[in-house]
Specification:
29% helix, 273 residues, alpha/beta, 23% strand, eight-stranded mixed β-sheet
């Protein structure tokens, strides 16, 4: 693989760029396989700092929607135990490979579909911190988080806002299959958290909600294609749109900007608080 451009994801958590050096992650994991420059103060970095501020050597963590487990393995170095759960057995097989290769002995992984009635083989009141990094919405796993959480347990999450935080001014100039459609605004993304907590009986308390909106820059047409095509790269191959994307980048001074928006949230699960 070629080396990343200078400044590539400098302000991002390091595991988000691991696909550059390990082909398995792009093929078998959940990745964002493009190069861009994301401004400091972005939501991914803020979330990572918030999570680590809640970790202690004695903390027991549940990573909800852990994917291929790279972040789970990072958390393992700062806590007593971490369990990563995901609905996809394939990505969990890769997670176990990565944990073994990295000498991580205090991380376990289990198949679990995030639904209120899901059964997970953990004792009641055994988890201090729930982490959901771009995973399922809180309503799908709050019921068993309440059962598993110790008194004072906290849930932390980060949600992206769809393909971009806003429709860019150059969207109409893109090849039609690559144009951005709907994006989610702050109120809608925040409702993914608050609606789970609503009801006649308290189901946790929203202790923090942060909207992080920074620019994400692209100066390489191929990387822009990877970003916009996403999982449809085989259906919309880069050679078919290379000329149009190259001309578009050139028309805008050699660099295009997308808005990089994240909602970061914190919920206290102790209903007596």
């Amino acid at each position: 693989m070629t080396e990343p451009a200078a400044g590539f994801l400098d302000s991002y958590p390091v595991d988000l760029a691991e696909w550059e050096h390990d082909d398995r992650l792009d093929v078998r994991g959940f990745t964002h396989p493009w190069r861009s420059q994301v401004a400091p103060g972005n939501g991914e970095a803020f979330f990572d700092a918030l999570v680590h501020a809640h970790l202690r050597p004695e903390t027991a963590v549940l990573d909800v929607g852990c994917g291929h487990g790279a972040y789970t393995c990072r958390l393992a170095g700062s806590c007593r135990r971490v369990v990563g759960v995901d609905r996809d057995p394939g990505v969990l097989a890769l997670a176990r490979e990565l944990a073994a290769e990295r000498g991580v002995s205090n991380a376990d992984f289990a198949v679990l579909t995030a639904e209120p009635g899901a059964e997970i083989d953990l004792p009641d009141q055994s988890v201090d911190l729930f982490v959901c990094r771009r995973g399922p919405v809180l309503a799908r796993w709050l019921a068993w988080a309440e059962r598993l959480g110790r008194p004072g347990a906290v849930a932390l999450g980060v949600h992206p806002t769809g393909p971009a935080g806003a429709i860019p001014p150059w969207n109409a100039e893109l090849p039609e299959p690559l144009r951005l459609g709907r994006v989610f605004d702050y109120a809608e993304v925040r409702s993914w958290v608050t609606e789970a907590l609503a009801g006649p009986e308290p189901r946790g308390r929203l202790d923090g909600c942060w909207w992080l909106d920074v620019p994400e820059y692209f100066d390489d047409p191929e990387q822009l294609h990877r970003r916009l095509a996403g999982s449809r790269r085989a259906e919309i191959p880069y050679p078919a749109v290379k000329r149009e994307l190259s001309a578009l980048v050139e028309r805008y001074g050699g660099q295009l900007e997308l808005r990089h928006c994240r909602l970061v949230w914190k919920v206290a699960l102790d209903r007596t608080g």
